[in-house]
Structure formats: structure tokens, C-alpha cells
């Protein structure tokens, strides 16, 4: 409850940029894209500093799951290579205000909007990531076995996010950003994935990468007819009063 109270009462700034989503919805790719657009395509920093160092993360499971799964002092004694990243990910939520945030803050949130400050949408820039629930379910299954991003018009998404963040880039710059975000490059980028957690026995060593396939439609290999019918019914009921649609589910 203390953690949720902090989330709800934290002070939002006009310069804040949020990337909000349900886990395994393409958050990592969106974080990298939004950060680069918001920081004048600073590829050097994006390559040298991990996402967990460039974003403040609001996710209710980190403090509990990772702290229980790891022994920070033991890893410090072993001089593990990525101990700094692990410490940042397990930073007590209430201490987030102690982080140097003199520049614009980039914040990643996996918690429901109802638990964020009421003025979040009116004050900050919020990029919300939605992915069809069937692919999320499959991606989440593989994620927890280890303890996709999706196909879309990337240049159009870059232009839309750039406009939203009051940034302007040339066609050549957008082409370069698309190359940077290409899945085969993105999957190998150590500054965005969480594969380093294998060093701390959080992920199973032989399991696949944190960034898995980069494709949609994988749910069809896992959902039988009854499961598909139930899932589509749930999606229809929950999207009825929204304008959110998943084109790949239109069959």
C-alpha cells in the first residue's frame, strides 16, 4: 500500500514523458523509440546507457520479485558486471525522487492509470502501448518460462510520436531511426534488453532472449478453438466503449 500511495501522490511535471503499457506489449521497443525521439536521436547515449538508467520505472512487481530473487550483497562481493543495473531496477520506489532528474524525466509505467496521479494525462506526455491480448498472453507465457514486438508502419509511428513530443526530423533521420529499431538490431542491443539478469539467476540461462520474436499472430500456435472463442468474447466486451481496435484480430 505504501508503494501505491507513492505512485498516486508523486508530483507530475509538464516535462515528463510516460510510456505506459501492460507488460509484454512492446514496451521496450516503444521506450527506446520515444527516448531517441525526445533526445534528438542521441544514439551514443542510447547505446552506452541501459534503458533502466534512462527511465524511471513504475512497476509494482520489481521491488518484490527481483529483491526476493537476488542477493544484492552477494553479487556485489562477486563483482558482477551489471550490478549497477540490478541496483537501479530494485531501487526502492519511494527513493525515485532522489534520482537526479534535472532534465526531462522519462517514465515507464506498468501500473493501471487509476493508480497514477489524477493529473497525469493533463500534465505530462503519455504514450500508451496497446497490443492484442492473445499475443500478450503468449509473450507473457514465454517471459515467465524465462524467469514481441509487433509489425506496424514504423516510419508513420515515428512521425506521429515526434509530432506528439514536439520534435521534427528529416526523412533521412527517420530512415536512420528505422534502421536502429530494426528487430534484428534491436534484439542484440545490450542497452535495451534484460538478458543481463541471467547473470543474477533471475532468468533461466538457456531460455530465449528477453526480446523474443518481433512478430504478431504467434497466439494461433497456442490457442485452441475454445480458448480463441473465449478470448475474442473477452476482448469484445472490454473494448466495447473504446476506440481501441487490433486490426490483426479482424478475421
Give the helix/strand layout:
Blueprint: H1 2-9, E1 17-21, H2 27-38, H3 43-48, H4 51-54, E2 56-58, H5 62-69, H6 72-77, H7 83-89, E3 106-109, H8 120-123, E4 125-129, H9 133-146, H10 154-164, H11 171-181, H12 183-187, H13 225-239
Parallel strand pairs: 1-3, 1-4, 2-3
Helix pairs in contact: 10-11
GO molecular function: sulfotransferase activity
Protein name: Sulfotransferase
Keywords: Transferase
H/I helix tally: 13
Per CATH, what is the topology of one domain? Rossmann fold
CATH classification, class level of one domain = Alpha Beta
Q: Any idea what the radius of gyration is?
A: 19 Å
Number of DSSP strand runs: 4
Shape annotation: globular
Distance between the termini: 42 Å
Q: Considering the protein shown, what is the CATH homologous superfamily of one domain? A: P-loop containing nucleotide triphosphate hydrolases
Q: Which blocks of ≥5 consecutive residues have pLDDT under 50?
A: 60-69, 145-150
β content, as a range?
5-15%
Second CATH tier, the architecture of one domain:
3-Layer(aba) Sandwich
Approximately how much helix is present in the residues? Answer: 40-55%
Strand order of the largest sheet: 2-3-1-4
What structural class do helix, strand and pairing data support? alpha/beta
How much is the average pLDDT? 76
Q: What is the ordering of alpha helices and beta strands?
A: HEHHHEHHHEHEHHHHH
Biggest sheet details: 4 strands, parallel
Characterise this structure:
44% of the residues lie in helices and 7% in strands. The termini are far apart. It is built from 13 helices and four strands. The protein has a domain at 15-131 and 154-207: P-loop containing nucleotide triphosphate hydrolases (Rossmann fold, 3-Layer(aba) Sandwich), CATH 3.40.50.300. With 251 residues, the chain is of the alpha/beta class. Helix 10 packs across helix 11. The longest helix has 15 residues, at 225-239. The chain has a four-stranded parallel β-sheet.
Amino acid at each position: 500500500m505504501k508503494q501505491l500511495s507513492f505512485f498516486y501522490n508523486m508530483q507530475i511535471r509538464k516535462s515528463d514523458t510516460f510510456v505506459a503499457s501492460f507488460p509484454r506489449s512492446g514496451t521496450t521497443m516503444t521506450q527506446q523509440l520515444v527516448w531517441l525521439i525526445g533526445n534528438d536521436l542521441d544514439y551514443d547515449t542510447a547505446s552506452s546507457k541501459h534503458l533502466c538508467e534512462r527511465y524511471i520505472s513504475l512497476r509494482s512487481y520489481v521491488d518484490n520479485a527481483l529483491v526476493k530473487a537476488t542477493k544484492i550483497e552477494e553479487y556485489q562481493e562477486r563483482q558482477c558486471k551489471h550490478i549497477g543495473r540490478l541496483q537501479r531496477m530494485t531501487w526502492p520506489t519511494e527513493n525515485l525522487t532522489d534520482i537526479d532528474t534535472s532534465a526531462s524525466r522519462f517514465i515507464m509505467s506498468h501500473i493501471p492509470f487509476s493508480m497514477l496521479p489524477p493529473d497525469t494525462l493533463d500534465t505530462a506526455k503519455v504514450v500508451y502501448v496497446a497490443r492484442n491480448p492473445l499475443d500478450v498472453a503468449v509473450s507473457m507465457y514465454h517471459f515467465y518460462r524465462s524467469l514481441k514486438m509487433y509489425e506496424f508502419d514504423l516510419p508513420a509511428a515515428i512521425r506521429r510520436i515526434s509530432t506528439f513530443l514536439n520534435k521534427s526530423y528529416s526523412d533521412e533521420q527517420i530512415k536512420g531511426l528505422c534502421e536502429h529499431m530494426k528487430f534484428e538490431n534491436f534484439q542484440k542491443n545490450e542497452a535495451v534488453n534484460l538478458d543481463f539478469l541471467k547473470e543474477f539467476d533471475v532468468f533461466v540461462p538457456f531460455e530465449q532472449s528477453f526480446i523474443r520474436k518481433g512478430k504478431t499472430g504467434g497466439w494461433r500456435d497456442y490457442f485452441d478453438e475454445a480458448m480463441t472463442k473465449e478470448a475474442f468474447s473477452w476482448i469484445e466486451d472490454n473494448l466495447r466503449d473504446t476506440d481501441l481496435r487490433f486490426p490483426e484480430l479482424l478475421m
